[in-house]
Structure formats: structure tokens, C-alpha cells
Amino acid sequence: MENLVLQALSGLASASSLFLVASGLTVIFGVTRIVNFAHGSFYMLGAYLAWTFVTTLPRGHLGFWGGVLAAALLTGMIGVLVEVLILRRIYRAPELFQLLATFGVVLVVQDLALLTWGAQDLLGPRAPGLRGGTEILGLRFPDYELFLIAVGPVVLGLLLLLFHRTRWGTLVRAATQDREMVGALGVNQRWLFTSVFFLGACLAGLGGALQLPRESVNLHMDLAIITEAFVVVVVGGLGSLAGAALAALLIGELHAFGILVLPKITLVLVFLVMALVLVVRPHGLLGRAPGPPVGGANTAEPVIRPAPPALRWLGFVALAAAVALPPFFGDYALSVLTEIAIFVLFAASLHLIMGPGGMASFGHAAYFGLGAYGAALAAKWLAAPMEVGLLLAPFAVGVFGLLFGWFCVRLSGVYAAMLTLAFAQIAWSIAFQWVEVTGGDNGILGVWPDAWASSKLVFYYLTLALCLAATLLLRRIVHAPFGYALRAQRDSALRSEAIGIDAFRTRWLAFALAAVMAGIAGGLFAYAKGSVFPTFMGIPRSVDALIMVLLGGVQTLSGPIIGALAYTGLQEQLVRLTDYWRLVLGLSIIALVLFFPQGLAGAARSAWEARRGDA
Amino acid sequence: MLEVTGLSAHYGRAHILDGVALSVGAGEVVVLLGRNGAGKSTTMKAIMGLVPPSGGSLRFLGQEIAGREPFEIARLGLGYVPEERRVFSELTVLENLEVGRKPAPAGARPWTPERLFALFPSLGAMQDRPGGRMSGGEQQMLTIARTLMGNPRLLLLDEPSEGLAPVVVERMADAIRALKAEGLSILLSEQNLHFARAVSDRATIIEKGRIRWDGTMAALMAAAEVREQYLSV
User: Fold this and answer.
1) Per the database record, which ranges form the ABC transporter domain (chain B) (predicted)?
2) Are strands B14-24 and A133-136 parallel, antiparallel or unpaired?
């Protein structure tokens, strides 16, 4: 009994910290409609800055609490910088582009933090005056945790006062609902957005700074917290402060008791709850269905047309080179080419649901990873030959695609994307925690191709042939009646249903099909690497796929191919050339988003059409 | 006060407005008449900067406002009341008014919630009610009151009588006449000729994005063939 109470208390303390981060995220989303991936980076910066301030300022109350506050405020200023320099220019861009830009910020901040504070974990001092513990039901409970429990409600109260008792708060709530109207009433949105970003980043920074006495500061804090914060915000309902508080409480306690009751599936549990909430309440616990988009701007996507002859020729030349040149390459180059071929298929499969399908997925790596694990598990437990493994993987993935897709395609927009993320995290957690079967973090080793394909060159040709066939099939599907139906339901679900298209089934099948294709890529990847790890279906891998598609351009068929080539090539080169490849990559992503909002292929097409004068 | 010449606008490749010209003088009520889809709302939005004009000139109080942002245009003294009302449904009546509040130009008597409740008595009785839980007529009054809180010199009223019960339309006409008596200039768009006649000095007729007729209300009422050609359904 006493243990349960203490466990509940420590759940409350985590809930408090989680709420600080999630409240900033939800407020930023409410007003700017930006899904801010960089919010976790603000949290990490808050922790690092607090460490610097607290360890340099004189010891004592002023040094500690002053340092924590200064760290929060400085993080807020960094948030302002990000908003003014980057996001302000892309508020009119599609949602996913903004997401991409914030992910660029994540990469940049990671390397800047590495440069500034080094790779080792940093330990901060404990909070003055709160070093001891208090006896609760005969057990000692740390004072600092009690303090954290109080911080959450206090911040919630202050935020509610701010939003309901000040003119600024009223404007923010109005803008959350209809920001164009707020502008037409004479309010400068820029100023409003910037101030909201300041507040949000401040809250994240405060959340990070307050972790200093609890845990070490390290470079993995950003992605760890952003996933949790996303879960909280989505479960609570995007843009809802009270929802974030409620969800933080739920998730905090779930963690605390999950460890006690079901230590093996703590990671899965959180995402299961999220999936469950979204299935029952598609807009979160306290969220509201977003109104129809206001303003009559032309929102129809550009029509996908067959490639112009010049592009076809370019494609043929590239393909001829991919077939003819490899015999002259060494093993390393062959590995890189094999990977590129695999990622082209991976990106093309995601493109099917994002471009023609009009759905966003933050968790496409799940199907890539499931394909890899499918092949590896077949090799490990069934001693299956490579051909069987490669065949089995996409089938297994197809089953999961149908299962997960059935839930995901019912939702739309950010919520659908978040549900795909939830399923991906469930898959990842199982691979990570079910050590007996999957090997956990150590993965499955020794997944090598059969003897006939063991040379790098043969395996490269095998991969090229399979990926090429699958990618061409995906292209064919877009121009088939099924592809028309898919695009019709994207442009107007209502109108397409009125002419007899089953929008749900169309989306569902497209989702499963994309999963199968990603599964083929994943299976090949397992044999190419000789091993599989949970990271194959981690968030960074999903983001890779997103970047490849967006980089190339969502509304062109060659986009994902060009995007995969550019991104894989760039990353490969950067990793070889510099230790700070994340910095360069992040800056490149930001530059691309700012200057090529249609993606590389889209920009090339616009330039081509402009030159021929038929735009 | 407002001088629009050669105003054009596009949605994608579609030409929505083609050389629209109209003017509103100080203290004048001008109605923009036309059928559904004629371009009335787009004209209003283009003046307000919500739809970027692709050509033409918009002069307000002697300044060119084409290409400026909506918030700047609003601060110059143009008040926009959208057709869809766009009341902030989660904000109370008083909070909705607060969002619209802007300082009054020097010398003008500023609008306050109290003065607006005198103009629209039913709003005064529901000051703390969320905008989402009001009837269509009440929302229409709130959206006008919200814009008036910005102390505009010229009010753009987009189809204020649309979807309202006849008795509410009468009250709306009274309110507009009261605003005119205060010296406010108004450009209103309407399909309801009866309502337009009750409040307007002049009429401008738009069809398929072009201005077809322009003259006093009395002249329009005398020209049956104009009404027949452009306004009858």
C-alpha cells in the first residue's frame, strides 16, 4: 500500500515535468498550427543552459533558482530566434514542410550542443533547500519530487490566468480558432506568433532546467522527451491546455504503475493507450474537431502527369549507369548503391500514401523495420533461405499494414500521423523489449544472403531488380483506376464518395500496399546489412523517409526517387567528411525548405515549365 | 473615402474579379448588389487584403492599400464583417469584443461594450455566453459589434441579412441606419434588394466579376430592366 502511494507520487512528479513541455507544445500548435519537432531540443537546451548557469553562478538559492530561470528565459529567446529566422517564412507552406524545418532545427541543435557541452553526460547539483526527503507513510520521499509535483499545477494555474485574464491570452485563444479573422481585426499575427513561441520555448526550457537535480543532462534528451510530449499533446487534444494536463497525469501515472505491474511492456503501454484514445476519441480527450479550412484559396493539388520526355531520358541514362557501372566499383561503393536502391523503394512506398493518398505518416519505418525483422526472424527461427525470407517479409508486413492501417486511415491530418507514430513506436518497443525473440537492443545478427547472392555485386543487382520492379509498379498504380480513386478521395472525400468511390477502403488498401512495399525494402535491408536492430523502425528512420519524400517533392512521381538519392547520398558523404554531419544536414534541410518549398523535383519541374512557357 | 479602380483577383487561374471599380464617400452607405457567386464577397476580401489583388488600385483615405496585410488595412480604419460571421465560438461575447478592440482615431467617440449593447440590446443580456452558443442573428450582431470595437472609419458588411429571420433583418436595418446616423461610412454587399433599399444611398451592381451598373438607389428602383437583368433569380 505504502509503495503504491509513493509510486503514485513519483508518477505525479513525472506528470508535472511532462506537462511543462507538453503545454508549450500544445500552445504553439494551437496558434501557429506548427507541429514543433524542435520542442524537445528546447527542453534539452534548457537543461544544458541550466547546468552552465548553476555550475558557474555562486552556490546557494540565488545561484540555483536564478540559473534555472535564466535558462528558461534564454531558451525562450532561442525559440524566438528559430521562429523569426525560419518558421515565420513558411507559415503558408504545407504542415509537413514546417515539420521538416523543425526537424532540421533538431539536428542543428544536437550538434551545437555537442560542440558546446561535449558528448559526456553532465551531472548537476541538487536543489538547495530540497536535498532531503520527507517521510510519507513511513517511507522517505525526496523533497525535490514533492516540489515538482507542485510546479505542474502552479504553472497550469498561471497559464490559465494568462489565457483568460489578459488581452494577450484572449488574442491567443481567438487565434487558435481563426487566426485570419484575428488579423482582419487589426492584430499583427507575427507579433502574436513570436510571443507564443517565446512562451512555449520558455516552458520547455523550464521543464528541462528543472530536470537538472533529477537526472544527468545528455544529448538524447531531445528525442526522448519529444515523443512523450507528442503523446501527451495528442492524447489531450491538440491545442488544449487542460487536455495536456489531463493527459500528462494519465501518462505519468501509467509510467509509474506500468513499471510496477508490467515492467516488460512499459514502452508499449503508453503507445497502446494513445492508440486506444485516438480510436475512441479521434481528436484526443479534450480536443475539438478542427473546423473546415477557412479562406477560399485554391487548395487542389497539382495534377500528376506522366514524365516529360527529357526526364524519361534522364531516368534511362541514370538506370543504364546503375546497371553498367557497378562491376567497376569496390565493395564500399556497392554497399552504398544497394542502400540507395533500397531507400528509393522505401521513399516511393511512403510517397504513395503521402502524395496521391494525401495522408501523412510519421511511422512508416514500422513497415520497413517489420520487413527487416520478418526476414531476420525467418532466418533465425525457421532457418529459412533468403528467398523465403524475402518473400515472407512483405506478406507479414502486409498483415500489419492492414491491421494498423484500418485504425490510421480513419483519422486525418496530424492525428492520423500521430497514430501511425504510435503504432510504429509499439512495433519498436516490442522489438526493443521482447528480448527472448528479437534479441532486444542487440538485434539479430548473421542474416546473410544465400551463397549465390553473397557477393556484393550479385546482391546489388538482386536489390536493384526488386526495388526497380516495385518502384515501377508503384508508379503504374498511380496512373491506374485505383490511383485515380486514391487521388479523388484526397481532393474531396465527400465528392468521391458521391460518385461511388469507397474512400475508406481506397485509403486502407493504399496504406497496406505502401506497407508491403516498405516491407520488401526492409527485407532487402536486413540481408544487405547482415543484421537487424530496433533502430530500423525508430523515429529517426521514419523521419528519414519523410525527408526523402518532402525533399524530392510530394506532388511529383520522380520526387521520392530524387529525394532518396539526394538524401542518402548527402548523408553518406557528410558522415564520411565531418563529425558534425548533423549540423550540415540540418542546415541543408532548413535551406531546402526555405528555398524549394515544392521539393527538388517540384522546383526542377517549375523551372522547366517556366522555360518552356507553359506554366 | 474608399476608391476602388480596376480591381482584379484570381483563384488559381480562374478570373474572379475583372476590373471592379466602386467608391464610397464619407458618411455614405453603398450597396454592392449581385447574385450568388457574382464576386461580392471576393471584392470585400480583396479590399481587406484577405485575397491578394492581382491588379488595380485600392485607395483608402488617400492611401494606396493594395498589397498591404489585413492587419495594417484594419489599423488604417477599415472594419471587415465577414459573411460567415466567424465569431470566436469558444470566447464569450465580451472576449469577442476585446479581440476587436483598437484605439479610436483622435476626436472620434470610441465604441465601448456599453454603447454596443445599447445598439444591440440582445447582446447585453448574454455578455458571458460563448459565441458558439448563440443564434445566427445574435452571432451576426456580435460580429458587427466586434468589428465596431476597432472604431473603423469605413465598415465592410458582407451580406449581413443572409440566413436571418425577417424580424431580425428589420432590427439589422435599424442598426445600420443608426450607424449611418453616427457618420460611419458603409459598404455592404447584398442579394436582398428589399433590405438594401432600406439602408443604402447608392448601389453598384456586379455580375461575373464585372461592374454592370452604378447609380443612386432611387435610380435603381426606377430601372426595372436593370433589376430584371442582373438581380432577379
Assistant:
1) 2-233
2) unpaired
User: A261-270, A408-417, A478-487, B146-155: which has the highest mean pLDDT?
Assistant: B146-155
Question: Shortest CA distance to A344 belongs to which of A111, A551, A172?
Answer: A551
- A316's CB contacts (< 8 A; 6+ apart) are none
Q: Are A59 and A128 in contact (CB under 8 A)?
A: yes
Q: Is B5 helix (H, G, I), strand (E, B) or coil?
A: strand
Residues of chain B whose C-beta is under 8 A from some C-beta in A?
A: 11-12, 42, 45, 48, 50-51, 69-71, 74-75, 80, 82, 84, 86, 88-91, 95-96, 98-102, 146-147, 150
- Residue A311 parent element (H or E): helix A309-324
How is the beta sheet containing B154-158 ordered, strand by strand?
Answer: B78-81, B154-158, B185-190, B29-33, B202-207, B210-216
Decide: B66 and B72 in contact? Cβ < 8 Å. no
Sorted by sequence, the CB contacts under 8 Å of residue B180 that are 6+ apart come out as B27, B29, B186, B199
pLDDT confidence tier of residue A302, bands split at 50, 70 and 90:
low
A121: number of Cβ within 10 Å: 12
Beta carbons within 8 Å of A234's beta carbon, 6+ residues apart: A274, A278, A284, A414, A415, A418
Higher pLDDT, B78 or A358: B78
A171, A184, A189 ranked by CB distance to B50: nearest: A184
Express each pLDDT in A160-176 by its tens digit.
999 999 999 999 999 98
Distances (CA, A) of A482 to A9, A54, A304, A376, A420: 54, 61, 14, 33, 23
pLDDT in tens, B100-117: 999 998 888 899 999 999
Between strands B29-33 and B202-207, the pairing is parallel
Cβ-based neighbours of A218, under 8 Å, separated by 6 or more: A121, A122
- For the segment A475-490, the average pLDDT, to the nearest whole number, is 91
Residues B195, B169 contacting (CB under 8 angstroms):
yes
Question: Bridge-partner residues for B201, per DSSP?
Answer: none
B207 three-state secondary structure: strand
Chain A hits for B48, CB-CB cut-off 8 Å, are: 184
